[in-house]
Design a protein that fits this description.
There is one protein chain. This protein is α/β, with parallel strands linked by helices and 304 residues long. The chain has two domains: 252 residues, Rossmann fold; 35 residues, no CATH class. The protein has nine helices and ten strands. The strands form three sheets. Strands 5-4-3-6-7-10 form a six-stranded mixed β-sheet, sandwiched between helices. Strands 1-2 form a two-stranded antiparallel sheet. Strand 8 and strand 9 form a beta hairpin. The relative contact order is 0.14.
Length: 304
């Protein structure tokens, strides 16, 4: 009779290990490819009021001064001078559906790497970052601070296991309204989610974008769009736990699944465009450096 040797418990990865990996494999590559020019990513943060002038086609409507416009009977916009210090907020969705994806790289892992990378790029130049964390309720608010220690704290909070209080669908309006209540000064705001949510979050997001530089980042997995042919399978709603038995080998079912995903994406893009928010999608199988370079290129093009 052979005795089975007990396996040692897996060692949990630390925030320091994650940040060290990203600094060597992601941030160093970005420094070389972007040559230190991150203005295309972080443009518009930390602005000081300089002057007023009449509105011109192409001006940012968020800079319209409505009080002056009413007095002068013509549209006027505020002009700003960029301040050196940036304060950035991350509104982060950690609801159950964010755990979906490959075992070695679910959406949550992409989220952790992305937040850690963006935070380090900001804080190493003297800027501050903060975060509001949501998992069917707001469970953590991290006040903006600078420095490497702040980045490590963000990573640690994202690594911590949090249970959703109830098996209910995600309501992103709770997260966005928390941002409205917390963020009082013009700043940079990242909303990071898979945007699988009940309706009602578009209006508060529009209100938040009027006062801030907003970037929406949608994390997604290819299997959420194109269902693989695996025969009879059980599909579970990560938000509610509801299970449904489906025949994934049925071409008609896979076609309807794909079309439904396309409709959701189209609606999402329309909603964020109405809210005045740039939206970028990052897949679980995309290289993070390439994703950030693509985001920088798209933001630069929209500013031209």
């Amino acid at each position: 009779m052979n005795a089975t040797k007990p396996q040692p418990p897996k060692t949990k990865i630390t925030p320091e290990q994650i940040l060290h990996r990203l600094e060597w494999k992601v941030i160093r590559r970005l420094d070389g490819l972007l040559q230190g020019d991150y203005r295309t990513l972080f443009y518009g943060d930390g602005l000081d009021f300089a002057d007023l002038r009449e509105y011109q086609i192409g001006d940012d409507i968020r800079h319209i001064d409505w009080n002056v416009t009413a007095r002068m009977n013509s549209l006027h916009v505020r002009q700003y001078i960029e301040d050196r210090e940036i304060t950035a907020w991350f509104l982060i969705d950690l609801s159950p559906s964010m755990n979906f994806g490959p075992l070695d790289r679910p959406k949550k892992q992409v989220l952790i790497d992305l937040v850690a990378t963006l935070s380090r790029l900001l804080t190493r130049n003297g800027n501050r970052v903060g975060a509001i964390l949501y998992n069917n309720q707001i469970y953590q608010t991290i006040s903006p601070k600078g420095g490497r220690i702040q980045v490590l704290r963000l990573i640690q909070e994202l690594l911590n296991e949090t249970k959703s209080p109830t098996k209910t669908s995600t309501d992103l309006s709770v997260l966005v309204n928390a941002g409205l209540n917390m963020i009082k000064k013009h700043t940079l705001v990242f909303v990071i989610s898979d945007f699988i949510s009940t309706s009602g979050w578009t209006k508060p997001l529009s209100l938040l974008s009027r006062k801030n530089e907003m970037i929406g980042i949608r994390l997604w997995d290819p299997r959420e769009v194109e269902l693989p042919d695996l025969g009879l399978i059980f599909v579970e709603d990560a938000e509610t736990g509801e299970q449904l038995r489906v025949d994934s080998s049925n071409p008609e079912f896979r076609r309807r699944f794909f079309e439904a995903a396309q409709r959701r994406e189209t609606e999402l893009n329309q909603n964020l465009k109405k809210a005045g928010v740039d939206l970028f999608a990052i897949s679980t199988n995309e290289d993070l450096v390439n994703a950030i370079l693509r985001m920088a290129a798209m933001r630069k093009k929209r500013r031209m």
